[in-house]
């Protein structure tokens, strides 16, 4: 699979086509939309069962692989005792993500990953029966705002590498500093009713990954880093829309819709810090205040 198709398989935000299949009458049949809470119970039970009955190890290439705890592997440590649980709150359901940390990543300042960052990664996607549906064996850049929420929000539990690498005699590149882990995602934080190539409807997913480097983003080029436009800090930049124009702030060059560009209502200082001016002193910075008289 080429990298364009790899990225396309993960894109969630811009893909809203209704999923359907063909019945025996050769007509399209819409997939019944299931209740989020009810489906989450099913997904979570399936994920927990997998975690209780499987272990992980690193293969000869240093990649995470999963296997069943049975036979010669009967004494292996179950994943369930090694993962951390991260709760993702939504209006409908509070979802559990299960995150395995093999390498935390760099301790250098500035390497904390945010859900609006762009990250250099390799990864492998699997169903819970260990069927692989996607893989990038060479590092590629992901804009985390363009992938499923369960994938992007797991990354914020890691720190990126510094991109430090060396070129081997055979021309391959080795990264000496990176994060490595896995995440187990209920379908409500994945594709839910939207089938994808190799991914059936309502499928919980697992991803293993390495994170080599990050780049901070400013998607709308308004002078404010995209992570700062997640105003409620809930790791969901899509629900912050100050002017109510259906465009989230991180993609809106005029956040308050007052006709003055955001970059003209802030001051970017020489050291890169930002001063958020508040001309009328009402506690709301100018770039979010369409009632400001300036």
From TrEMBL:
Catalytic activity: [protein]-peptidylproline (omega=180) = [protein]-peptidylproline (omega=0)
Domain PPIase FKBP-type, chain residue ranges per copy: 116-215
Region (Disordered): 222-294
EC number(s) given by UniProt: 5.2.1.8
InterPro entries (UniProt xref): PPIase_dom_sf, PPIase_FKBP_dom
Keyword Isomerase listed: yes
Class of the enzyme per the UniProt entry, highest EC level: isomerase
Keyword annotations from UniProtKB, A to Z: Isomerase, Rotamase, Signal
Domain of life of the organism encoding this protein: Bacteria
Low complexity composition-biased segments: 271-286
Protein name according to UniProt: peptidylprolyl isomerase
Organism, scientific name: Spongiivirga citrea
